[in-house]
């Protein structure tokens, strides 16, 4: 599938997003903050798939939820079609949420076990008064067909489906409101590898059919490579590198990206690169390292890395890196 660049106007622009969760610690219940996301910015063009990748706990899901305002940012803005969502009232948000949907990792928890799946898909149609009531069953049957399910599935319950089929149901429900932008939060992580590719292909097909834009969150680099036009790499709440998919995988510039990519198995052993093993644990977001947050684990760290925070700089067109050495 042809990869799209970022030449189209952005449908979404997140600017300097920060999320700190307050926690109380120790005998005196001293207040401190989990710094989940720090000064995060990105733009996603219409029709693009932006892959956001990083280890578990790096802040990528928190970012996805802030972008949809399912979580309030501590600071920063989210512009959707040029309008700042962080200034929207509840009523305005309710309207815009029709266009901005989310698909979660665990489709079972997203479905009511006591509700037939046809009714579950129909729910948002009634909620947003889409189409005439008597047309709803027909719309749902069309959506089931679009995601590769059968008309007889309409009256069945979630437990009667496999994990892959449940993810298809959740996708049909998200599509019912005719969205433009979908956050896919680890949508295939819980599925067998054989099913993963079917769901990824379906996501690509639906993107074409419904002109969708995706923010695709995952920890699996192969999955992100398969589906994304551009990729952003997160480490400890910071965006450390961002590039078109081909550039990122062929010329990773940030030491953390290089380490992540070196652990991906390659089909041809002749192309095998040296595996970079990161030393030490990921530091606690309660107590972020000074300077570059990656410096305690970076083989190339210098004295300056411990003091000075690196900013994202353009290395090549659309390729940005936050590292003093680049
Ligand atoms: Fe490593 Fe320094 Fe670059 Fe951070 S800024 S990734 S510590 S070389």
Fold and architecture overview:
With 326 residues, this protein is of the alpha/beta class. It has one domain (10-99, 179-321): Rossmann fold (3-Layer(aba) Sandwich). It is 29% helix and 25% strand. The protein is built from ten helices and twelve strands. It has helices spanning 60-67, 90-97, 117-127, 136-146, 163-175, 193-210, 221-227, 245-250, 255-262, 303-307; strands at 10-25, 30-45, 49-53, 75-80, 83-84, 100-103, 181-185, 213-218, 230-235, 238-244, 313-316, 319-321. The strands form two sheets. Strands 6-7-8-3-9-10-12-11 form an eight-stranded mixed β-sheet, sandwiched between helices. Strand 7 (181-185), helix 6 (193-210) and strand 8 form a beta-alpha-beta unit. The structure holds iron/sulfur cluster. The site of iron/sulfur cluster has 13 residues, from loops. Iron/sulfur cluster (SF4) binds next to loops.
């Amino acid at each position: 599938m042809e990869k799209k660049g970022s030449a189209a106007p952005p449908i979404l622009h997140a600017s300097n997003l920060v999320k700190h969760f307050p926690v109380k610690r120790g005998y005196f219940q001293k207040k401190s903050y989990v710094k989940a996301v720090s000064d995060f910015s990105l733009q996603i063009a219409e029709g693009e798939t932006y892959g956001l990748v990083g280890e578990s706990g790096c802040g990528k899901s928190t970012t996805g939820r802030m972008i949809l305002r399912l979580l309030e940012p501590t600071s920063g803005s989210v512009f959707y079609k040029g309008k700042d969502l962080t200034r929207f009232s509840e009523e305005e948000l309710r309207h815009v949420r029709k266009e901005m949907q989310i698909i979660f990792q665990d489709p079972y928890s997203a479905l009511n076990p006591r509700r037939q799946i046809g009714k579950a898909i129909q729910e948002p149609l009634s909620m947003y008064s889409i189409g005439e009531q008597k047309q709803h069953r027909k719309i749902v049957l069309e959506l089931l067909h679009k995601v590769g399910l059968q008309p007889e599935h309409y009256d069945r319950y979630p437990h009667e489906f496999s994990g892959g089929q449940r993810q298809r149901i959740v996708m049909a429900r998200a599509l019912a409101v005719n969205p433009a932008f979908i956050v896919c939060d680890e949508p295939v992580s819980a599925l067998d590898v054989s099913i993963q590719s079917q769901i990824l292909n379906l996501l690509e097909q639906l993107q074409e059919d419904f002109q969708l834009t995706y923010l695709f969150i995952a920890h699996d680099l192969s999955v992100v490579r398969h589906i994304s036009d551009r990729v952003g790499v997160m480490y400890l709440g910071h965006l450390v590198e961002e590039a078109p998919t081909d550039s990122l995988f062929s010329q990773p510039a940030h030491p953390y990206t290089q380490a992540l990519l070196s652990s991906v198995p390659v089909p041809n052993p002749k192309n095998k690169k040296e595996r970079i093993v990161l030393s030490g644990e990921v530091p606690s977001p309660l107590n972020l390292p000074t300077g570059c947050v990656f410096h305690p684990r970076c083989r190339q760290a210098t004295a300056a890395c411990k003091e000075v925070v690196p900013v994202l700089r353009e290395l090549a067109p659309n390729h940005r890196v936050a590292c003093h050495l680049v």
